């Protein structure tokens, strides 16, 4: 039986346990199915599909290859994400199916780093949710988000607010568009 997890507001089902996530006890409708070891039957849809480059990362590995290249399969609604270490994900255009593969000597744990970060961020974007790399604090009924690259000090600033008991510190995972112009709802984690 597949394990069910909750991450970034999504209910995930996986063919094997996902390192770093705790299986959910509550039964819920699954939003995203993840195949890490089993080859899903829907991959046959891509047998004749022609991939076209959709995105090439401007950053490169030490070997000079892009850290990420994304293809979109012509004639289908699937994307192929390939990282410079050979880790690969196939994601459907609705953000409901993910298949991962990785070369030796990489492990499931290595692949999970991509899955729980940029790949689920990509899935959220396909679903119309903007994912942010940020920390946030809640002060009263307002929130302040600190955005920036890794190492910029976002978590440190949020922790300082929490230490002084000024706010409730949280990790900001996503912003969802709402009806009004410029309005959004924020999920604090």
Provide a descriptive summary of the structure in words.
The protein folds into 2 domains: 3-128, no CATH class; 131-188, no CATH class. It has helices at residues 108-126, 154-163, and strands at 3-7, 10-14, 32-35, 50-56, 68-74, 78-83, 88-92, 97-101, 130-139, 142-147, 168-177, 184-188. It has 2 helices and 12 strands; from the N terminus they run E-E-E-E-E-E-E-E-H-E-E-H-E-E.
Q: How is the topology of this model organized?
A:
Elements: E1 3-7, E2 10-14, E3 32-35, E4 50-56, E5 68-74, E6 78-83, E7 88-92, E8 97-101, H1 108-126, E9 130-139, E10 142-147, H2 154-163, E11 168-177, E12 184-188
Parallel strand pairs: 2-3, 3-8
Antiparallel strand pairs: 1-2, 4-5, 5-6, 6-7, 7-8, 9-10, 9-11, 11-12
What tags apply to this protein structure?
alpha+beta; single chain; 2 helices; 189 residues
* Strands ordered across the widest β-sheet: 1-2-3-8-7-6-5-4
Distance between the termini: 28 Å
Rg measurement, Å: 18 Å
| Quantity of strands, as a count | 12
Helix fraction by DSSP (H/I, runs of at least 4):
10-25%
Largest sheet: 8 strands, mixed
Mean pLDDT across the residues is 84
Low-confidence stretches: 172-186
Hey, roughly how much beta strand do the residues contain?
Answer: 35-45%
Tally of separate domains? 2
Shape descriptor: globular
Number of helices: 2
Structural class: alpha+beta
Order of helices and strands: EEEEEEEEHEEHEE
Oligomer: single chain
């Amino acid at each position: 039986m597949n394990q069910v997890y909750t991450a970034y507001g999504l209910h995930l089902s996986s063919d094997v346990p996902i390192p770093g996530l705790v299986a959910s006890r509550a039964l819920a409708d699954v939003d995203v199915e993840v195949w890490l070891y089993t080859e899903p039957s829907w991959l046959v849809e891509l047998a004749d599909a022609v991939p076209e480059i959709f995105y090439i990362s401007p950053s490169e590995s030490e070997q000079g290859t892009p850290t990420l290249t994304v293809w979109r399969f012509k004639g289908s609604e699937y994307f192929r994400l390939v990282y410079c270490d050979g880790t690969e994900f196939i994601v459907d255009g609705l953000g409901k199916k993910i298949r991962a593969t990785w070369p030796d000597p990489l492990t499931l744990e290595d692949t999970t780093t991509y899955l729980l970060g940029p790949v689920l961020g990509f899935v959220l974007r396909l679903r119309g949710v903007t994912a942010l790399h940020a920390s946030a604090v809640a002060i009263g009924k307002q929130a302040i988000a600190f955005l920036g690259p890794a190492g910029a000090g976002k978590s440190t600033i949020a922790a300082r607010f929490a230490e002084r008991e000024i706010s409730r510190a949280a990790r900001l995972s996503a912003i969802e568009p709402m009806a009004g112009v410029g309005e959004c709802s924020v999920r604090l984690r």
